Amino acid sequence: MTKFSNPTVLQNETLKLRSIEEEDIPVLYNLIYGSGEPEWKKWDAPYYPLEPHTLDSYRSHEHARKERLADDEPDSRLLIEVDERIIGTVTYYWEHKPSLWLEVGIGIYDPAYWNGGYGTQALTLWVDHLFRNLPIARVGLTTWSKNERMMKVGQKLGMKLEGRMRKCRIYEGEYYDSIRYGILREEWNKLHHT
């Protein structure tokens, strides 16, 4: 995992976002896959099964992710650290790269760090970094209607509700809506840089 000669580090007074290093992979693997029914997955798109991995296949997956990035693209996944402890990751992915349609995501795998404002702080640093380093007009965030915490994070970031696809997610026999939030560069700059 040596594609980036200058690893990314973003931080505020509470947390740090940083590039994933080789020695982080076992820690991250254990956070994500360490229990058979992880609590975090009940909230993070549980209607999609957790992709099964061994430590070796997860390591290969991480290496391949970095290799797919263009030389001028920022790292697509960073660790979230609090007090030098890895608690999760932030990501971005291209919904449609030719039109620069980018979506962000976050996973805080340790429930002890839920409801502490870490998600809002991490995504604020992350979205700001992406607007500074990519020629994008908008950043999107997609969640589902049972994940009220993620909807609140989107709202706290100043994102607007752009779409609600009703009853298109089934989880544990119940229908839920798919929820799409987004914020434009000029809206972000007005809220976070004035």
UniProtKB/TrEMBL annotation:
The keyword Transferase applies. It holds the Pfam family Acetyltransf_3. Residues 15-182 form the N-acetyltransferase domain. It comes from the Bacteria. Keywords: Transferase. One of its GO terms (molecular function) is acyltransferase activity, transferring groups other than amino-acyl groups. The keyword Ribosomal protein does not apply. This is GNAT family N-acetyltransferase.
